[in-house]
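A quick aside before the break. I want you to see a complete sequence-to-structure record at least once, exactly as it would be stored in a machine-readable document. Don't worry about memorizing anything.
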Amino acid sequence: MPPLLVALLATVRSSVRSRLALEAEILALRHQLAVLRRQAPKRPRLSRLDRGLWVLLSRLWPQWRQAVQIVQPATVLGWHRQGWRLYWRWKSRSRQPGRPRIPRAIQTLIHQMCRANPTWGAPRIHGELLKLGIEIAETTVGQYLVRPRRPPSQTWRTFLANHVGQLVAVDFFVVPTLTCRVLFVFVVLAHERRRILHVNVTEHPTAEWTAQQLRNAFPWDTAPRFLLRDRDGIYGPAVRTCLDAMAIDDILTAPRSPWQNPYVERLIGSIRRECLDHVIVWNEHSLRRHLTRYISYYHEWRTHLALDKDAPVPREAHPVTGGAIVQVPHVGGLHRHYERRAA
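That is the input. The structure line, written in tokens, reads:
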């Protein structure tokens, strides 16, 4: 049976008893309460219903302070103040709290703008939304911004796109000949549209020879801002002096990390797979001839995935009505390109 119901029944029963019996029962109850307090000194746990009963007694019975034993009178007054605050919080609650939520599509658009433009704040995004005909408050835009954990910065892709016209990469690769000689090929590749700026062949590469190749690759004022290379010992003091004189900053890859110079490595792989693996190299003259033919095909006709299926030298797309399709061989017939020609 709940304690509150027991207390109510005891109150009704005491109203019909004699005065002496009532005093005796009160004495017995207080003695038992004192014994319980000595044996269980911990603070008792009262339910919300028990607290409500004592709050009600404190409002209706002037002598309630002499009857309360298990808690302090200040605790009962605290319960009353807490209930009063909860009542008025419930009474003054808003039926529709806060501003109305904006549509999910606009929230997604704000998130996309914030992630794509990490240096933008609420005013810039709000201005873009106004130009799109979306009328919302700037403070509302600020509530849906994506807060980055780090300071805003451009992505590496954006950085490379802004500096791709100032980046070149260089590297060597070897080609064995039919007479068991080893030839070294030096390649200079511009990152912008994957253009091969210079290529040359030698049997005995030196730092002085390499420096001269760089001078030939960048005549007059065509020197780039950055040059990406590996840590090969061929790039000696003569090469570094040449780069300093041309105001080029050389960027070194980590040891044994060819993946940090991917574009020129991909070019060397294409030259091997598409040309040198299918021909016999006799000497330097033979190798230069094969490379010249392949580089001509590479620049004018070979399509690249990184260039949206276009060549380094942009190719014109022929209309369907341009005539019959013909094939034109390149690199001695190893490759072909196709075009339309009028009859």
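Two observations worth writing down. Strands lie at 167-176, 182-190, 195-202, 226-229, 249-252, 324-330, 335-341. The chain has a mean pLDDT of 85. We'll return to this after the break.
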